[in-house]
Amino acid sequence: MKKTFPWSRRQALTVAAALAACTLGSSGALAQGAWPGTQPIKLVVPFTAGSGTDIVARLVAEKLGPALGTSVIVDNKPGAGGTLGAAITAKSPADGYTLLVHSAGHLVNPWIYKGLSYDTIKDFTGVTPMASLPNVLVTAPAHFTNVQDLVAKVKAKPGSFNYGSAGNGSATHMNAEVFRLAAGLDAQHVPFRGTPEAMTEVMSGRVDWFFAPMVSALPLIKSGKLQALAVGTAQRSPALPDAPTTVEAGVPGSAYLFWVGLFAPAKTPQPVVERLQAEVAKIMVSPELKERLEKLGAEPFTMPSAQFNKFIVDETAKAQQVVKAASIKVD
What's the pLDDT tens digit per position in 35-86? Predict the structure, then answer.
C-alpha cells in the first residue's frame, strides 16, 4: 500500500492561499491591496460628449485618477436613451474597472423601453450621486409674465399651448410632465432630438415653454434670448437666485430632481464601492469643483452607497408613476 505523508504547515498555508485567491477573484485581490493598481478605470457615459452627464463625468475623472493612483477614462457610448451604455456596463466584470455614469433617466428607462437586457436595480450597485443639475422653465422673452400667468393662460385655452422636451422620457420631459400634472394643464408635448433644437423653437415662440438643463440655458438667459420663469427643483438655484421654484410660484408637487450618479455592476466588491464613494464625495465638495459646478448651474450631491441604493428604489417607483400618468412612450 502506498504511504501518505502529512503536509507541512508551510505547504498547507500555500495551498489554502491559492484556493482563496481562486475563490475570491477580484475580492481577494482587493484584500491584498491590488485594486486599483495601475490598471485604468473606465467611466462609461451613455450620452454624447458635451452633455450634462458627460461634463460631470469628465470633471470627476480628472480628479479621481490622481486620487486612486491610476488613470480614469471617459468612454462615451450614446444610444437608445442611455440604455446602450448601461447594457455594456451591466455585462462587464464586477471588478471596479468598468463603471457607469448615468442620470435620473436611468430610472425612467425600464418603464419606457421594452425588453431591456438588464435590470436597473438588480444588475447595478449605486456608488453615489455626484451632482444635481436643475432644469429651468424657460420661455421666449415676454411670452408669459410668470408661472401664474402661464398656468392661467393655458387653463383658459386647453389644448392650445405646447411644451418642448429633449426627447420622450428625457429629464426635460419628465420635469415638464411633473409640472403639467401638478398644475393640471392640458397642453401638447413636442419632443425634439435634443436640448439645442428645443431651445431654438422656444426662442422663436413656436414652442411655448421648455424645462431646459441649467447648464445649457444659462448663457441664453443671461443674454436675454430666453426668459427664466422658475427652476424645477425643490430649492432655488445659486445660479439663478432670483428665479423662484415652481412650488414657490404656486404649483405644489411640481419639484423634480435631475441628478448624475456613479454606478457599478452588481456584485462589485463592497470595499471597492466604499473607496469609490469616499473619493468621489471628497472630490465633489472640494472648493475647486464646487466652483466649476456652480458656473454650470450644477451643485454637488452625494450620499453613502446604501442610502443611494434606497434612493434609487424610491425614485424608480416615482418615475413609474409619472410615466404611467403622462402615458410616456418611446416612438
Answer: 999 999 999 999 888 888 999 999 999 999 999 999 999 999 998 889 999 9
Predicted confidence (pLDDT) per residue in 249-299, tens digit: 999 999 999 999 999 999 999 999 999 999 999 999 999 999 999 888 899
**What's the pLDDT band for 5 if we cut at 50, 70, 90?**
very low
| Cβ contacts of 181 within 8 Å, gap of 6 or more | 322, 325, 326
Report the predicted TM-score, pTM, of the whole model to 2 decimal places: 0.84
284 Cβ contact list (under 8 Å, min separation 6): 60, 130, 131, 290, 293, 300, 301, 302
Rounded CA-CA distance 69/79 in Å is: 31
Name, in order, each residue with C-beta under 8 angstroms of 207's C-beta and a sequence gap of 6 or more: 162, 163, 164, 190, 198, 201
Q: Yes or no: say if 35 and 94 are a contact pair by the CB < 8 Å rule.
A: no
Cα distance between residue 215 and residue 52, in whole Å: 7
Sign, CA torsion 281/285/287/293: positive
C-alpha pair distances (Å), 194 with each of 51, 64, 81, 166, 167: 10, 29, 11, 4, 6
CA 327 to chain centre: 22
Cβ(75)–Cβ(43) under 8 Å? Answer: yes
CA distance from start to end of the chain: 76
Strand residue runs (E) in 52-167: 72-76, 98-103, 124-132, 135-139, 162-165
**CA 22 remoteness from chain centre:** 36
d(CA 204, CA 37): 53
Amino acid at 204: S
Q: What is the pLDDT of residue 23?
A: 41
